C-alpha cells in the first residue's frame, strides 16, 4: 500500500470525530460529577499519605483492595459512561451474569421480585438505574440484578 492509497482525510476525520465526542462527553453532568468526586478522593489520598508518615498506614489487605481502583483516578468519559460495570470489585457481579439468553436465571429473578412485591405495601421498589451503565435483567421495564433484589429486601424489612 502506498502513501497515496491511504485515505488520510477520512482517517483524520474519524480522529476528529472521536476527539469531539470525548470533549462533549467530558461536558456532561455525569463526567463533571466524576471530576468532582475524583478531586475529593485525591484529597483523601493526600490525607492518607500524611497519616502514613505519622505511623497510621492502612493494612496490606486494604492497600491491595484500593489498588484495584487506581485506574479510576484517570478514567475517560467512556469508562464513566459505563461506571456501574466497573463495580465488580465491590459487588462481585458482572454484566455477563445478566444476558437475556439466561432465561432460567431471569425466571428466578422475576419470581423473587414478584414475591418481594407481594410483601411490599409501601411501594419501595427501585430498579437498577440505567445511567452510568446500569445492568440487569429487563423485568417489567426495569433493570433487576442481585443487588437491587437484596436492597429491596432490606428496605421491606426495615419498613
Short description:
The protein is built from 7 helices and 2 strands; from the N terminus they run ααααααββα. It is mainly α.
What do you see in this structure?
This protein is mostly helical and 159 residues long. It folds into two domains: 3-81, no CATH class; 95-158, no CATH class. The chain has seven helices and two strands, in the order H-H-H-H-H-H-E-E-H. A hairpin with a 2-residue loop joins strand 1 (137-139) and strand 2. Helix 6 (103-119) runs parallel beside helix 7. The radius of gyration is 22 Å and the shape is extended. The N and C termini lie far apart (69 Å).
Please report the distance between the alpha carbons of the first and last residues: 69 Å
Spans of at least 5 consecutive residues whose pLDDT stays below 50 are: none
Order of helices and strands: HHHHHHEEH
Query: What is the tally of helical segments?
Result: 7
What is the overall pLDDT average?
89
Please describe the topology of this protein:
Blueprint: H1 8-26, H2 29-53, H3 60-67, H4 77-81, H5 88-91, H6 103-119, E1 137-139, E2 142-144, H7 146-158
Antiparallel strand pairs: 1-2
Helix pairs in contact: 6-7
Amino acid at each position: 500500500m502506498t502513501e497515496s492509497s491511504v485515505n488520510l482525510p477520512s482517517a483524520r476525520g474519524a480522529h476528529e470525530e472521536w476527539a469531539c465526542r470525548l470533549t462533549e462527553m467530558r461536558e456532561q453532568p455525569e463526567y463533571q460529577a466524576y471530576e468532582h468526586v475524583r478531586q475529593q478522593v485525591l484529597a483523601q489520598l493526600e490525607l492518607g499519605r500524611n497519616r502514613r508518615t505519622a505511623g497510621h498506614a492502612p493494612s496490606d489487605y486494604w492497600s491491595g483492595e484500593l489498588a484495584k481502583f487506581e485506574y479510576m483516578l484517570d478514567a475517560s468519559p467512556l469508562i464513566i459512561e459505563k461506571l456501574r460495570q466497573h463495580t465488580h470489585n465491590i459487588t462481585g457481579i458482572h454484566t455477563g451474569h445478566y444476558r437475556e439468553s439466561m432465561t432460567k436465571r431471569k425466571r428466578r429473578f422475576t419470581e423473587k421480585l414478584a414475591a418481594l412485591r407481594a410483601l411490599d405495601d409501601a411501594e419501595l421498589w427501585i430498579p437498577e438505574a440505567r445511567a452510568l451503565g446500569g445492568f440487569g435483567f429487563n423485568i417489567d421495564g426495569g433493570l433487576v440484578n442481585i443487588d437491587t433484589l437484596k436492597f429491596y429486601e432490606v428496605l421491606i424489612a426495615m419498613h
